[in-house]
């Protein structure tokens, strides 16, 4: 995952927290407003000091945080935690007669966990401890209601929570890293399996499909043709005088010529064509949805491309191929189709080589 993805996720989470803060303000106003009807204090003073003024201060604070969210791109997570800490402080000061409210200082610390940052956790616990000390020393109302032991307990709870949260963060990172490693290993094995499967179907010299793939594909095409009428042609190509090339110039030169012929075949293939190295110096092409004249024209271009080039490693001589092809006839099996194409190839060889012969034209 990219860095921009994590930044977008962080901003989305920050947006959710800001929305939650607005809901907290509404909840605070509703609960304290309802409490004004049962409080022993003067209702007017209670509404002013506990409900309206704190709620207004919190609204202004959230408005400021919204502006920061809109314009601040770097460090918004720290700004948010400081804002949450300040909002919690306003609630604690408004509810000073409830000493347990100081434990609300833990909320910025809890929020920091979801940013997965050790620095942010350290910032949250430090600001919580500083805020607790300032509230205790600067608020006479709170210092009267909050005992020293309660303040120390709150400070210890903040520090302990920070340690637990940091341990959780490290554990989550460890699990995430293990998951990433396992996923990468699984993908690696999958790619290896795909490559092995591909290699089992590909001829290593020509990078065309091999003999096994040729027969599998031809079988599949015939099965499809049985249920849906298609124009299917099979062509067999054989390098002329290949034994002479091997005997005269060596097997290394023969491999180069085989690769050359395969490349010329590949250059002329179209979308629905399937080419393979059928064996030795022989190649096969399976063609669907193409009429005989067009397929013969394509085969002629392949033959001409091969014959047009001279080869330095053959002392400037040319290489030619003979081609025989056959259209699939009604009720013709795979074996009969192959025999007809092979007979056409033999006819091309017998009539002088470097020719393309269509099986249906044979007597």
Automatic annotation (TrEMBL):
GGDEF domain boundaries: 230-361
GO biological process: cell adhesion involved in single-species biofilm formation; negative regulation of bacterial-type flagellum-dependent cell motility
Transmembrane segments: 20-38, 50-69, 121-139, 145-165
Gene Ontology CC: plasma membrane
Gene3D superfamilies: 3.30.70.270
InterPro entries tied to this protein: Diguanylate_Cyclase, GGDEF_dom, Nucleotide_cyclase, Rev_trsase/Diguanyl_cyclase
GO MF term set: diguanylate cyclase activity
Coiled-coil residues: 165-199
Domain of life: Bacteria
SMART domains per the UniProt record, alphabetical: GGDEF
One Pfam family named in its UniProt record: GGDEF
PROSITE patterns attached to this UniProt entry: GGDEF (PS50887)
Assigned keywords, A-Z: Coiled coil, Membrane, Transmembrane, Transmembrane helix
Name of the molecule in the record: GGDEF domain-containing protein
Organism encoding this protein: Cohnella candidum
